[in-house]
Amino acid sequence: MPEDPTLERPDDPKDTARLKAVLVAVATIAFVVTPFLADPFTGFDPALFPEPVDDPPLQPAGWAFSIWGVIYIWLLGSAGYGLFKRDVDPGWDRLRWPLFVSIAIGASWISVALIAPVMATVLIWVMLGGALIALGRAPAYDRPWLALPLGLYAGWLTAASSVALATVAAGYGIGGAATLSWVGLVLALLIAVAVSQRFGVPTYPLAVAWALAGIVATNLPAAPVFAGIAAVGALVMLWLMVKALRPAS
Q: In this predicted model, what pLDDT tens digit does every residue of 177-217 receive, in sequence order?
């Protein structure tokens, strides 16, 4: 009996693409909702470390964390657009697995960070890796719906992952908080400059600049040199943002 051509094959790649779109949407909803179910997070609890680290220089001011409101809303819009308008689009599909991994981990990250800074630091670097892979695979079209929210998300994670690493290292006596804050600042800037130049997504350096502005705010006037270098870094990031906004010649 001939096969009914109207029946979809069980291994239809479009079905797989739709499934991934659904998974990204569900993970994004969980990512957005879970902060309301956990205590606020503005840095690791110093009491969780063998050597307590209270307000390290690399920690941005509390107001800088407000960027998450924009990130959450934009990622939610992106996931909805991807699900209903680009569910089987190849350009969207190729980045969904790394994005799903990053956001799915992010859905539980705050709960982990409140009790286990070392594990949270490992997880935030995995989140950053997934976000950068997704950003690198983002197509040139649909930028307001995909590349731009991914850039904002990955940019903040770049700063946050370096802050987490420096704080945990100081908390376990690997070095002083001030010295490791310098290391974390340089690390974040190296990654941020390389990614900004490579991908040319303006929201990525914008998010890093916002984090650096928060660092400047926490270090004036007590640590003017550190604040000054962070300010220079923020200006570099803003220049890279403007460069990314210029039309290609």
A: 999 999 999 999 999 999 999 999 999 999 999 999 999 99
Residue 106 C-beta-side C-alpha neighbours within 13 Å: 31
Average pLDDT of the chain to the nearest whole number = 93
Lowest mean pLDDT among 45-49, 101-105, 184-188, 198-202: 45-49
The answer to whether the Cα torsion of 222, 228, 230, 235 is positive or negative is positive
Q: CA-to-CA distance for 44 and 128, rounded, in angstroms?
A: 18
Listed residue (204, 199, 71, 78) closest to 142, CA to CA: 78
- Whole-angstrom distance, CA of residue 232 vs CA of residue 236: 6
Q: List, for residues 124-151, the tens digit of each pLDDT value.
A: 999 999 999 999 999 999 999 999 999 9
Query: What are the two backbone dihedrals, phi and then psi, of residue 11, each rounded to the nearest 5 degrees?
Result: -105, 25
Of 232, 67, 93, 81, the closest CA to residue 155 belongs to: 67
Provide CB contacts within 8 A for 220, sequence distance 6+.
Answer: 227
| Token code pair at residue 240 | 């890279």
Whether the Cβ atoms of residue 196 and residue 204 lie closer than 8 Å to each other: yes
**How far, in Å, are 26, 167, 188 from residue 159 at the CA level?**
26, 12, 6
Structural domain boundaries in the chain: 13-39+61-245
DSSP 37: T
Contact 154, 204 (CB under 8 A): yes
pLDDT at 119 over 80: yes
Which two three-digit tokens encode residue 116?
A: 């286990």
Please, what's the largest Cα pairwise distance for the chain?
Answer: 82
